[in-house]
Structures are given as C-alpha cells and as structure tokens.
Amino acid sequence: MTQYLISFNDGAMDHIPAEEMPDVGKASHTVVQEAVNAGVWVYGGGLERQQARIVATDGTVTDGPYPETREVIGGFSVVDVATREQALAWAAKMAAACRCAQEVRELMPDPETGAMIREAGSRG
What we know:
Elements: E1 2-9, H1 21-38, E2 41-46, E3 53-55, E4 61-63, E5 73-81, H2 84-98, E6 103-106, H3 111-123
Antiparallel strand pairs: 1-5, 1-6, 2-5, 3-4
Helix pairs in contact: 1-2
Organism: Micromonospora zamorensis
Protein name: YciI family protein
Family: Belongs to the YciI family.
C-alpha cells in the first residue's frame, strides 16, 4: 500500500457561508468514517489559520509562509491505498464534502521508520 497526502489550501473554504459550515463538517466526517471503515484512513485534520514558524537547522526561528500565499495548507488527510486512482477517488469524495478542490501527492515510503514503529509496538 502507498500513503497519499490529500490537502487543500488555506482559504479554499472561505466561499462557504458560516451557516452552511455545520453541514460541511458533517459531510467531511462522513467521508472520514467511510475511509476508517474501509481501512484506508491514516490521519488528517484542519490547520488553524495562523502565522507559521520556520525552524532552521541551527534552531533559529523565523516567520513562515504568510497566510495570503498559496503555499499554506488549510487542511489535510493521509490515506493508505493500493493505487493513485484510489487516492484520487478518495480526494473526489473529500472535495465534494469540503466543497473545495483537493491536491493529491504520494508520500515517500520510509521502511526504516516503519521498522522502528513495528519494533516499538512489539515492546508495548
């Protein structure tokens, strides 16, 4: 299986009237429950609208991307599926629920981290 990041930009849901947000939340949670039931949900959430911070390799902290730039993520989901087409199908469900376009990107596999997690779980 391969993990995919499905995300949308900060501000992508600004077109939705406040009184409709409870319906959007309910629709989003329905898709998440469907993904959980299908065994493909890994993790996800919305990000608070705030100034990000960048921590450099030397520990220096500076202001991060500004919210008005397109690089700021507003929310994300991670799914673990067999094919890119399946990831795109989940993104389509999320786009319909959230009423905004979703970006889909494959996450790089990291077998060493997977081994660390399995080892820690076996000591549990």
